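Each lists sequence, tokenised fold; shown next:
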Amino acid sequence: MKDLVQSVELGVSQRKGIKATRPKVWLKNELVRVGLAESLCTYVMMVFGLGSVAQVVTGQGAFGQYLSINLGFGLGVAMGIHVGGKVSGAHMNAAVSFTMCTFGRLTWRMFPVYVFAQLLGSFLAAGTVYAVYYEAIHDYCGGNLTVTGVKATAGIFATYPAPYLSLLAGFIDQVFGTAMLLLCLMALSDQKNKPAAAGSEPVAVGLLVLLIGISLGSNSGYAINPTRDIAPRVFTAIAGWGADVFRSGNGWWWVPLVAPPIGGVLGAGVYKALVEMHHPPLSEQGGGLVEELEEETAPLEKPKNIFGSTK
């Protein structure tokens, strides 16, 4: 309340032409600022995403279907980018952060900060969704928290493979899904190609996640994000589902942890090798094209890349 009063007084003083000193409440440490923003945007994305799954599962189809989950995560990603895009870049995905470090768009010293922030945001979001849907979950499963079976609820929080899916096929599934994510993210930010228009990046990335969900999601729930999967999985192990969250699916838990970073580097590498590396210098292009590119360019500084991921 004190801060609110100070802000109001500051605004009134400015309107009256009185010189006022802005309260020094900013965090100057880049690591802290980036970490807080990345945690919050990941939290926002995960609350909307996991919340959509919880609503579909506990509502038994009365409050949405599979498309609802795709929309929940897609729109959640868009909102997350609005929350932290200009501060941390809103990666919300360790595979994105790893790929950015690999290609020199993010310094390696920042990688642990991003991963920790994403883990924290995802874990807190899982706890929040569990609290909000606590009674609904227990009413749905009769208080028996299971990982598999007709009334399984662990899938609300982490991904599990379809019964027919082998570990090898699932690994390939995660590599390919994440490769498509990073390939398209590279295209959306390529200022010499056809990037997302300035200001439209959140919607564009959200639509990309929605597209992956409705085309590549049925095998294993399209985690395509290590931190999105492992943090809620750990939460469920603590909250009552037990060690089965790591044993289920022939020990599936490590696949969404290892495969996405590999897929991310492959997807981004393919785009760079086949498209980005072959752009002619602007000076060699026609004047009209140069002007068009300049108009469409929305500079993405390294700490401000709008690379919101998924899920």
Q: What stands out?
A: The CA atoms of residues 3 and 23 lie 9 Å apart. The chain has one domain: 29-275. The domain at 29-275 is CATH 1.20.1080.10 (Glycerol uptake facilitator protein). The chain has a mean pLDDT of 88.
